[in-house]
Design brief:
Layout lengths: L1 H9 L1 H17 L4 H9 L6 H20 L9 H17 L6 H10 L3 H8 L5 H18 L4 H25 L9
Length: 181
C-alpha cells in the first residue's frame, strides 16, 4: 500500500505495473486472506494496526478483482483508466508542438508495433500495448525466460513510456502547459 502510494506519486507507469503484479500475486494465492497475510503482511514486521490496514488494502484489491469478474485474468478498471489517460496524453503529444521530442521516440518504436500487436492484441491502444509488453518482459525476467520479440523492443518501449510518464507528472503538477508553444 505504501509502496503503491509512493509509486503513484512518483511514477505512474511503475504504479500501473506494480498493481498488475499485485493482481497476479493475489490470483496465485487464490485470494486467501491467510496466504496474503503470511506472504505480504507478516514479513513486514509492522504493528498490529498497520498490519490490519495493509491486509485490508490487499483484500480490497481482491474484492475489486472479483467484482469486475477478473479473478483469473485481466486488469482492474482503475489501472486501465490510468492507461487510457496516458494514451490520451500520447495522442495530444502526437499532435501538439510540445510533443516533438516524444514523437521522435515514438517514431523509433512504430516499426515494432505491428509485431507486438500480434502478440498482445489488435484492439488495444498503442499505450496499452507498450504496458503489456513491459509487463510481459518483467514476467519473463522473473521466470528466467524471454520472448525475443518483447526483449528486442524494450529499448524502444522504455524511452517512450518514460517520457510519457515524465510529461504526465509534469502536467499533473502544472509544470507543463500542453497548449503553450
Amino acid at each position: 500500500m505504501d509502496i503503491a502510494q509512493a509509486k503513484r506519486k512518483e511514477n505512474i507507469a511503475e504504479y500501473i505495473l506494480y498493481l498488475w503484479q499485485i493482481e497476479d500475486l493475489l490470483r496465485a494465492l487464490q485470494f486467501s486472506p491467510e496466504a496474503i497475510y503470511s506472504q505480504f503482511v507478516a514479513p513486514r514486521n509492522l504493528d498490529e494496526q498497520s498490519q490490519n490496514v495493509l491486509l485490508m488494502w490487499y483484500m480490497d484489491i481482491a474484492t475489486l478483482l472479483r467484482e469486475e469478474e477478473k479473478e483469473s485474468s485481466g486488469h482492474l478498471d482503475h489501472t486501465l483508466h490510468l492507461v487510457a489517460d496516458l494514451h490520451n496524453l500520447h495522442l495530444q503529444l502526437m499532435q501538439l508542438p510540445v510533443g516533438a521530442a516524444y514523437r521522435a521516440k515514438v517514431a523509433h518504436l512504430e516499426p515494432y508495433l505491428p509485431t507486438l500487436r500480434t502478440i498482445f492484441g489488435k484492439n488495444i491502444s498503442d499505450t496499452e500495448l507498450c504496458f503489456r509488453a513491459l509487463y510481459a518482459a518483467m514476467l519473463y525476467r522473473i521466470k528466467g525466460s524471454g520472448e525475443a520479440v518483447v526483449a528486442d523492443t524494450l529499448e524502444y518501449i522504455s524511452p517512450v513510456i518514460a517520457t510519457l510518464t515524465s510529461i504526465y507528472h509534469q502536467v499533473e503538477r502544472g509544470e507543463i502547459d500542453l497548449f503553450k508553444e
